[in-house]
Amino acid sequence: MNFTIKSYVKECVLLAFILASTMVFSQNNKQKELETRRQELRNEIQQLNKLRADNKTKQKSQLSLVEGVNHKISVLSNLIKVTNQQANLLTREINSNQKKITDLRKELADLKDDYAAMVVKAYKSKNRQSRIMFLLSSNNFKQAYKRLQYIQQYADHQKKQGENIKAKTLELQATNTKLLNQQKEKNTLIAENRQVQKTLQADRKEHEALMQSIQKNLSTYTSQIRQKQREVNRIDAEIDKIIKAAIAKSNTKAGKSSSSKSFALTPEEKVLASNFTSNRGKLPWPVDNGYVSLGYGTQRHPIDKSLTIKSNGVRITTQKGAQVRAIFNGEVSEILKMRNVNPIVMIRHGNYLSIYKNLSKVYVKVGDKVSTKQAIGEVFTNPSNGETILSFIISKDSNTQNPASWLYKM
């Protein structure tokens, strides 16, 4: 019965230890994830500020200014949110360590009390003659052997208690140091967050002033937005026409119906498409630096909420002279040149296509094999406002995909 109870107690203690260790490990991982995300957001804000500084001499349109401020407000808000999560997690860890310190101090005090009692008892019987007499007064050899074992065990226990006191003292010191570092880290986060909140407040005031200015002449801006959307639709319709023609051509070549809506793939193209699919969410961005100034899909326009805009891809604002990179191995299937439209490069990856719009320079030609991150051109910079924007599309056959689902941390 005693054995069963002891076993149960041991199992409970082991389970509690495992749960505590798992919780600490989980909190550490969460803290690392939050810190990584915080640094990413801070880097993005630095990029935004750099892009703004590089183009400060250019007269940007108010539409572009609103888009830029909107994005920065979003990033700043996310930074504040992530920093608050870090501070809250640190608060929980600080509270946990404060409790741990209290428990350790009590445990250390108990150990010292026990050790002091042993020292007193040992002092009273420190006389070697007392120990010998204790052994010689045994009734028989067995009792003498037991008493000898007791003396040895008592000495070992004293030594172990001393080691426990030392270990607990070191643990208490380490926990105190960790607590001080956590409190310092929390104070740093709070101070940084206050500064970010000031920046956010200033950007919101700028956004409000821009919107008030735009509202005075909203009809003109609405007309510009509609004209821009019509131009985007025209280009996207031409891209769709080219993709469908390429699909029909691949099926005719393979001896299949030209009315098929999917590419007829060779064995090599099937492998390429499979590799492309397996890299979903891990593909590199088509530019080295930048931020998404327009997301994928149908959405309300940030200036005129009555207008709906459609985006078959994403728009990435980057820096002047930015090179365009292939997001995966493939073959240049088309270089599209339209009247009053900057060059467009289309790369096939089996039955997937990556499409790069608004280039000023093109380094490749139709039929070229390209590799992941290979430079294929340069993004066009608008001389009137200094904006450098790449429009980027991913399509499976003729169906557009959300690039955010494919590119790493978009």
Which short descriptors sum up this protein?
alpha+beta; eight-stranded antiparallel β-sheet; elongated; three-stranded antiparallel β-sheet; 410 residues; 13 strands; single chain
Task: Give an overview of the whole structure.
The strands form three sheets. Strands 1, 4, 6, 7, 8, 10, 12 and 13 form an eight-stranded antiparallel sheet that branches. The mean pLDDT is 85. The chain is elongated. It has helices at 2-54, 62-124, 128-136, 141-215, 218-253, 267-278; strands at residues 291-294, 297-300, 308-311, 314-318, 323-325, 330-336, 344-349, 352-357, 359-362, 369-370, 375-379, 388-396, 399-401. The chain has six helices and 13 strands. Helix 1 (2-54) runs antiparallel to helix 2 (62-124). By secondary structure, it is α+β, with helices and mostly antiparallel strands. GO terms for molecular function: metalloendopeptidase activity. Residues 24-61, 87-121, 179-245 form a coiled coil. It comes from Neotamlana sargassicola.
Order of secondary-structure elements: HHHHHHEEEEEEEEEEEEE
Q: Label the structural class.
A: alpha+beta
Unreliable segments of 5+ consecutive residues = none
> For the report, how would you describe the main beta sheet?
8 strands, antiparallel
**What helical percentage do the residues reach?**
55-70%
Spatial extent as radius of gyration: 35 Å
Span between termini: 61 Å
The total of beta strands comes to 13
Q: Could you tell me the mean pLDDT?
A: 85
Q: In one word, what is the shape? A: elongated
Number of helices: 6
Give the strand content. Answer: 15-25%
Protein name: Peptidoglycan DD-metalloendopeptidase family protein
GO molecular function, one term: metalloendopeptidase activity
Keywords: Coiled coil, Signal
Coiled coil: 24-61, 87-121, 179-245
